[in-house]
């Protein structure tokens, strides 16, 4: 690693393992080469383990946003009602994407820092028939963790036909998700967060039930690239270790994801959940001891893979973030439009927490203390 490299401690992209980086440096390889086919085929199988599902994974060149398009254009038909549990910026954006395909979106908004309440979800589901409900598992703009298990239970009780869609871009690999056991139909994610690979891949898990809904749709899929009719045969072929082609897969990104997924499964997913909880508790304790306030209003619904923190009185982004960078730490500014200049975000996902011996989190928290002191902050240390 270059000595000038600053630790990328934002809520994605995250730091990569050396073996993941190495996988990106493979020579030009055909997308139907005998060494590439099993890398994609095995990644599809590994993803089922990571998501605890027997459903259909998709790994497609793109980013998390493509997962929204895939959900909206394949599962929703123009005029369908969709309920968006909106805990920040990414709920607004997912809603916009759904509307692009003609969905009638109802936002169930919560105040900044809160997570959607089960009773409010139940009441909304009683008001009309929704084709799908979307939940941002961790809204990266607020660091709020939503109770996807509880919400899926409410859906099952109130409106069992409604598809449960989870935006897990900032949660897969860092927060507990059990797709089949919890009754989740779609998980959308991307390669660059807790899955520990570079940006470039849209990664999804789709339940058999949702694939059935897709196959029974009445209108054609209003999208070319994102159409599952084109991608299902490709995913099936690679899983059967057979070459196939619709659009060129991102060969090196998939090599890298394959290495990372193997590491995740080898370490054990339960252990991974526990390590993210531990790292988060450590970060949140330091933040609390420094006298700083989190954006989430309670630790009960604060994400384990990131922390969103208000600046103390008198300190601004322009003061703190460059000081952190001078200490070798890249943190992120605010994203939620209503409070953007008032808070910053730190990511604690992937190798930075699953290999604590690397010292990434300690270095970040120490840099935070030092930088605040340099800003003139007198808070408790
Ligand atoms: N949803 C959430 C919760 C996200 O954090 C992000 C990215 N930060 C996205 C969706 C969009 O993903 P991408 O930037 O990979 O397109």
TrEMBL record:
<keyword id="KW-0663">Pyridoxal phosphate</keyword>
<feature type="domain" description="Aminotransferase class V">
    <location>
        <begin position="63"/>
        <end position="338"/>
    </location>
</feature>
<dbReference type="InterPro" id="IPR000192">
    <property type="entry name" value="Aminotrans_V_dom"/>
</dbReference>
<feature type="modified residue" description="N6-(pyridoxal phosphate)lysine">
    <location>
        <position position="193"/>
    </location>
</feature>
<dbReference type="GO" id="GO:0019265">
    <property type="term" value="P:glycine biosynthetic process, by transamination of glyoxylate"/>
</dbReference>
<feature type="binding site">
    <location>
        <position position="345"/>
    </location>
    <ligand>
        <name>substrate</name>
    </ligand>
</feature>
<dbReference type="InterPro" id="IPR024169">
    <property type="entry name" value="SP_NH2Trfase/AEP_transaminase"/>
</dbReference>
<dbReference type="InterPro" id="IPR015424">
    <property type="entry name" value="PyrdxlP-dep_Trfase"/>
</dbReference>
<dbReference type="GO" id="GO:0004760">
    <property type="term" value="F:L-serine-pyruvate transaminase activity"/>
</dbReference>
<dbReference type="GO" id="GO:0008453">
    <property type="term" value="F:alanine-glyoxylate transaminase activity"/>
</dbReference>
<keyword id="KW-0808">Transferase</keyword>
<keyword id="KW-0032">Aminotransferase</keyword>
<protein>
    <recommendedName>
        <fullName>alanine--glyoxylate transaminase</fullName>
        <ecNumber>2.6.1.44</ecNumber>
    </recommendedName>
</protein>
<dbReference type="InterPro" id="IPR015421">
    <property type="entry name" value="PyrdxlP-dep_Trfase_major"/>
</dbReference>
<comment type="similarity">
    <text>Belongs to the class-V pyridoxal-phosphate-dependent aminotransferase family.</text>
</comment>
<dbReference type="Pfam" id="PF00266">
    <property type="entry name" value="Aminotran_5"/>
</dbReference>
<dbReference type="GO" id="GO:0005777">
    <property type="term" value="C:peroxisome"/>
</dbReference>
<dbReference type="InterPro" id="IPR015422">
    <property type="entry name" value="PyrdxlP-dep_Trfase_small"/>
</dbReference>
